[in-house]
Amino acid sequence: MSSIIPTQRLYFYVKQLVSKGYKVGVIKQAESAALKAAGQNKNELFARKLDALYTKSTLIGEEFLTLDPSDGNLDAGDIDSDPGYLVCICELPLTSTKGHANISIVGVQISTGDFIYTSFEDSPLRNKLETYLFHINPAEILIPSNLNKEAETLINNFSLDRSVRIERFNHNVLDTSSVLSHVTEFYTQNKSAVEDIETQDIQQIILTLPALVVSCLSALITYLSSFKLENILRNLKIMKPLETEKSMILSATSLKGLEILRNNSTFSEHRSLFWILNKTLTKFGERLLKFWIAKPLKDLNQIEERLNILTEIMYSDTIVFKVVEKSLTKLPDLERILSCVFHHKCSCSDFINLLQAFAKIRSDLLSISDKVSSEILVPRTKIILTELPELLDDIDRFISNIDIEAARTGDKTKVFHNISMYPAMKKCLDEIGAAEKQLNDFRVDICKVLKLINFRYATVAGQKYLIEVPNSNLRLIPTDWLKISSTKQVSRFRSPQIIKLCNQIDQQKELLIGHAADAWSAFLNDFATYFYKHKRVILYLAELDCYFSLSKVAKEANYCRPHIIDSVEPIFNIHQGWHPIITKIMGEENQFVANNLDMNIQNRCLIVTGPNMGGKSTYVRQIALIAIMAHIGSYVPAESATIPLFDAIYVRMGSDDALAQSKSAFMVEMSETSEILSNATSRSLVILDELGRGTSTNDGTAIAYATLEYILSEIKCCTLFVTHYPPVVELEKHYPENVSIVHMGYILKDNEDDLNDIETVTFLYNVVSGVSKKSYGINVAALAGIPKDVLLEAQKISQLTEFRSIIKRNIKSLMQKFASLSC
């Protein structure tokens, strides 16, 4: 199958094909007509070569930075969206434990230069692998062809949900000697590809990495070499572990259940926590904020530092923050342009945008340097604002060598001021100048032939140096002149000398274009040696952007500064807290009902009961979101909040099956609960919503009871447990100091006058001490439009079942009393 597309729309269709998961190659003519005519193969076909190769993760270059966002045929967000991570996954099954495996992940985002890795042991359900994939959100996954079934199934399902491209490779990841040799050779053969790589024992650095991480690196090197993008991997010093001691990794279950990065309805960022907190001014700031939200801190000093910066931005009168915020406004995506520069895929106009943006930032910050030293109080902010101009001290050197107007038009043959630095270009220009001088001098001979006093060459349809003669004077034309074109009034000719000189000019211009491209590449290469220094500049700017975003949200929504406590005896108090997402959606006209929370080392478990649709899930989600926001270093939606420093936040909500993985909703629920019980510590926050509802009432009750008892007796962490099961509530009797019971308030209206009517429940959405009488599910069924006959029959069955349950509990209580009297 073939199709024809306009040349100017090539990269639009490349992006369309790539977005569908295809690997797309672009083949271009490798020689020009002018050079071919002067060469030895002028009678052969034009040579062609593979000029570029693209996939979802390698879609980088000037062509994709300049696509028109107003094009109605592009998907929403298609232009500004990042290509995403290329991730390689390798695993080694553990023979000691069936189904378990050691897994390593290495990821690189070509468009930004981010380079990450992690290595871990995972269970047969591959829950950790799923969590890391949620965090990385790859565009393309590279896996060995013999990957185990468990990981293969999970990766396939993950990819189907997000249109992730999968590429398989064949080399043996367990052949450690060949893999190590390949990676070591790569990192030692061209150390000058990046700046700041010391001549140290690179092999020793590689040997400190887990073997599977080295296997991933080997596969990535091989794969990216076919795209000529492998240099992004050269600096091992910037490869960061995905998980650190100072931050927590929110599980995939928590990210989904709390709608942290995207909602569960349309799977877009709209109506997520990220949507609430994102008021960033730049694309690179937006990326960093998303990273912060998905990986909350567990280091008190870093949290307090962020809070101090937000406080200073919100309440300081200094002009410094106004100047910095204005500098961030309308910046291009510097991170992506910088990466294009590194890969020599940047246009002149984008590069000059980058330089001018850097220059303006430097100029703005130098103008307020005195005020930074005297008026900024938080050390971190002062360090950033002081270092930024220093890191950009080389920018003027690059700007001074560029003709800005020529750069704007993209003419690389005229872009450099000092052409003597590029001898090949200078030689071409000298040859062109000499030929043009000869053409100019040849006008004297033309005047003699045509018996003219003066003569000027004509230019028609782009053809220069034409001798235009009225048709009445054609008798004067020498026989060796070549007729080029004619009209009724005139004819146009070129003499053999002019033809020769024009061919020389055309050939030299073609050579000039090639030499200019080489010179431009060398110029970009010079700039790219400072890639990691300029990358640091962008990270600083992104950090400032995140602070401005969080401070703006806090001020507009009237959030409070949380008090974070790092203690083995945690206090978890929230006064008049509200759900940040729902409150924003409802708007000011529909006021959200604020609620409190009071927990401590003794009273560390809150059992939440109440009617269906009464707000239980919203309440516990609200608590989790407030805790996460505090650990991001953000102000929180409450009048006041005292929050323990948690080492992890685990949330299990909702019921989703995974049929493609042969897992029912209940199996998913149990496996996620298992992960929580295995990993939670006494300093974690655990939230479980209606555990056990995916099976029979007896089994569900038993599992919920046993799980909560295990948390109370063994883990001893802060826990919010939502349930409808009455026996679970009885745990308060066994752990009276540790358990509190609340329910969501409501008003019940009994229809005493009409026994054949359904009782009416009005939800108050406030948290009230004590156990809810019932769940009032029939009332919710009525709201859903279930036929009244069905509802009345259900009400009778419910009353009968409740009566039987009461009798059973009373009999059990009497038997226990009788047994105690007998003893």
TrEMBL record:
One of its GO terms (molecular function) is mismatched DNA binding. It is found in: Nucleus. SUPFAM superfamilies: DNA repair protein MutS, domain I (SSF55271), DNA repair protein MutS, domain II (SSF53150), DNA repair protein MutS, domain III (SSF48334), P-loop containing nucleoside triphosphate hydrolases (SSF52540). Keywords: ATP-binding, DNA damage, DNA repair, DNA-binding, Nucleotide-binding, Nucleus. GO terms for biological process: mismatch repair; mitotic recombination. Gene3D superfamilies: 1.10.1420.10, DNA repair protein MutS, domain I, MutS, connector domain, P-loop containing nucleotide triphosphate hydrolases. SMART domains: MUTSac, MUTSd. It comes from the Eukaryota. Pfam families: MutS_I, MutS_II, MutS_III, MutS_IV, MutS_V. Residues 684-700 form the DNA mismatch repair proteins mutS family domain. Component of the post-replicative DNA mismatch repair system (MMR). This is DNA mismatch repair proteins mutS family domain-containing protein.
